[in-house]
């Protein structure tokens, strides 16, 4: 019962935390943009994108820890668990030291890394930022053992509450530092201090509450080899993510300067919102995917699930993409300022192809459950390299918009391959999926017409007045989909169940 409560509460707190994160980001980011200025904000993102590459040094061992911890916990082998804890603490501590050494080498060669586009003062500040960020990263590595231990023990309530507190407190720590004029250096120092405090809380909880113990005797090197093989493909996916979503900033910083990095970063932020919204939907269905994979006659069931979840994600993804197409430019002008007007084009170029990927997001979990993720990982790594080759000339010529185009081309090429892979190897009926999505999309006709009319008459309104039409547009969107696209499952999911619950409450109240 406690396990079920932890899962339910953890899921609810995840949604609350994500919602708070969005709200705080929307309120906090424009203040930060104006206090830092476009150039320094770009410099901050540029350095962060380089340090993020050091994050792959964890090699995906966090996932490996939970897998092997669960294996030993079932057997109640406390000695093995203690040895596992000790082994991972040593591994991540060594990785942290390696990260510091690598960071020092990068900082000492900052001029070579960023080229001639940065000024002398920017290079000096970049060096300081990199050193602080590397220290922050190095500290975070050993704490992975403790956060993984909390997750493996399914203590989701504690974990999510700590994460939520961190999200809420962060701007209250950072903003005073920015108002005092300490700029990006003050920002990363404040974030590092918060990271240390959160790390200490997790350590204390594991040792005192969960009775976490460590042993460095009888180190199992056979297990180490097995974990390395298990983590290798996770490591490849981590590299791919870093290349696809951080290389653009580095290329822009190298060839165009910090202002273009800032413009790209603002646009990419909206794309990250879209990705996280879709990830929540697919994440809920992971246990069901694994259950179906273990059954016979699984292909039809997997295709049915693939289509059903695809439709749900289509509803959310299409709303975000279409809504941003109509209202995004006005929102960015108010939110970030007119100096970031090109960020609208960057966001659109990234979001449209990404939207097509996200409606098939559950496919990632399907191929993982079938242990068919190795070939896509290798192909995606090749595409990530092609992304770099395409993006460099595009960034040189067209700046932030060119970088976004290069990344989007790579995303489209990758998704074409993945669809063939789903069809030929994973047993998913992609033709049926595409047919169902095409039929389902007829409900978008009215929202598209309304959206075109809004855009064509936009000049009659100022930005604030235009944004007041967002709520009416969302209502039109859902009414159109309800009558022209939704079947019983979607109606119950989006409208029916909440309506029935409200009706039951009202009826009970009336009867009283």
From TrEMBL:
<feature type="transmembrane region" description="Helical">
    <location>
        <begin position="128"/>
        <end position="149"/>
    </location>
</feature>
<feature type="transmembrane region" description="Helical">
    <location>
        <begin position="273"/>
        <end position="293"/>
    </location>
</feature>
<feature type="transmembrane region" description="Helical">
    <location>
        <begin position="314"/>
        <end position="337"/>
    </location>
</feature>
<feature type="transmembrane region" description="Helical">
    <location>
        <begin position="43"/>
        <end position="66"/>
    </location>
</feature>
<feature type="transmembrane region" description="Helical">
    <location>
        <begin position="343"/>
        <end position="364"/>
    </location>
</feature>
<feature type="transmembrane region" description="Helical">
    <location>
        <begin position="401"/>
        <end position="425"/>
    </location>
</feature>
<keyword id="KW-1133">Transmembrane helix</keyword>
<feature type="transmembrane region" description="Helical">
    <location>
        <begin position="161"/>
        <end position="179"/>
    </location>
</feature>
<feature type="transmembrane region" description="Helical">
    <location>
        <begin position="464"/>
        <end position="484"/>
    </location>
</feature>
<keyword id="KW-0472">Membrane</keyword>
<keyword id="KW-1003">Cell membrane</keyword>
<feature type="transmembrane region" description="Helical">
    <location>
        <begin position="12"/>
        <end position="31"/>
    </location>
</feature>
<dbReference type="Pfam" id="PF01943">
    <property type="entry name" value="Polysacc_synt"/>
</dbReference>
<feature type="transmembrane region" description="Helical">
    <location>
        <begin position="185"/>
        <end position="207"/>
    </location>
</feature>
<keyword id="KW-0812">Transmembrane</keyword>
<feature type="transmembrane region" description="Helical">
    <location>
        <begin position="228"/>
        <end position="247"/>
    </location>
</feature>
<feature type="transmembrane region" description="Helical">
    <location>
        <begin position="376"/>
        <end position="395"/>
    </location>
</feature>
<protein>
    <submittedName>
        <fullName>Oligosaccharide flippase family protein</fullName>
    </submittedName>
</protein>
<feature type="transmembrane region" description="Helical">
    <location>
        <begin position="87"/>
        <end position="108"/>
    </location>
</feature>
<dbReference type="InterPro" id="IPR002797">
    <property type="entry name" value="Polysacc_synth"/>
</dbReference>
<dbReference type="GO" id="GO:0005886">
    <property type="term" value="C:plasma membrane"/>
</dbReference>
<dbReference type="InterPro" id="IPR050833">
    <property type="entry name" value="Poly_Biosynth_Transport"/>
</dbReference>
<feature type="transmembrane region" description="Helical">
    <location>
        <begin position="437"/>
        <end position="458"/>
    </location>
</feature>
